Amino acid sequence: MAETFRLLSHADYTVGWICALPLELGTARAMLDEEHQALPRQPNDENTYILGRISAHNVVIACLPHGITGNNSAATVANDMARSFKSIRIRLMVGIGGGAPGEEADIRLGDVVVSKPTGIHGGVVQYDFGKTKQEGRFVRTGTLNKPPVELLGAIARLEAEHMSRDPKFLEYISAATTKHPKLSSTLAYPGKESDELFNATYDHKVSSATCDDCDRRELVSRPARHNTIPRIHYGNVASGNEVMRHGRTRDRWARGENVICFEMEAAGLMDRFPCLIIRGICDYADSHKNKRWQNYAAATAAAYAKELLYTILPGDTQVISSPTELSECCSSKLSSISTLNHGNYTIRTVYYNSQECLSRRNGYVILYPTRAGIPAAFPNFLMLRIILLVLACFP
User: What confidence score (pLDDT) does residue 76 get?
Assistant: First the structure.
């Protein structure tokens, strides 16, 4: 018997998840607790979406068009998603990136980097945007928005939890491969013996597709880890429209701008689709980069995103901004109104016959001052339950 997927509405989705590559989309899909039916495409939206649920959050996932990566493409996908799914409150960019290991950041392949404001930067640095001055010297200019405060609070809580317990990477990857057996070999751990970091001054042998012919004496000696659980690093992510694959340039940017990861999409998102950047490290952004770790790194990034969503309660972010927005969205979907006069306020609870306006809620509370004043809207779910209880006790 074919599996039946639930059908929701565009307004039911509160998490927007963007990927750059099909392999990232595949691992993101595998992390869903439940997949939903596709929805009709909205006018002027060229994206293709995967819909589902993680924890109590309904998630919409989109991937950049095949072969069209970079900041501009990411911005286009994000704009279309935001137009079609107006209830999105949590925004994530999840995928792979190149690590910039250093003395303070012992980054290994398979680890996860999460954007966090560090130093003078807000979490993302556009390293290819600036101007060329005298003697051909390039100077980076401009700043980008920080991730939303709610997400920064959530990663702080998760970072604190990981001080006393291991992240759930391996648990979530194992569950994904159990549910989708075909992914077992794709998402398998490549092995620590293939995690090789060469000195920044030593370039890859151009004639070889692998590093088998590279000089082993140029490998950086690093202490062995006691387990294979990926580690999480928080800091600035460098973003540009070209691939970083030069060790000395990587290190120069890492030192000068305090960045720990390189990728190609984040700078196109932060100002119009403020989000958290989550990157699984698949190479060291040098000439030795290859694709061996890409699938596993995509899985660790997606697993972190899933654990983050389990940390965030739906009521923390699902907020309709004003009574005006509520009225415009839902005026045609009223089913009943209950009113209670109490003191200086009229407590009016509005019920709706559709979930298109309020995901997982059956009402919205508005307090109308009986004296001069402006109505105040309270979308907090706990307050809604309290008001409903009052109405039940005093009909």
Answer: 96
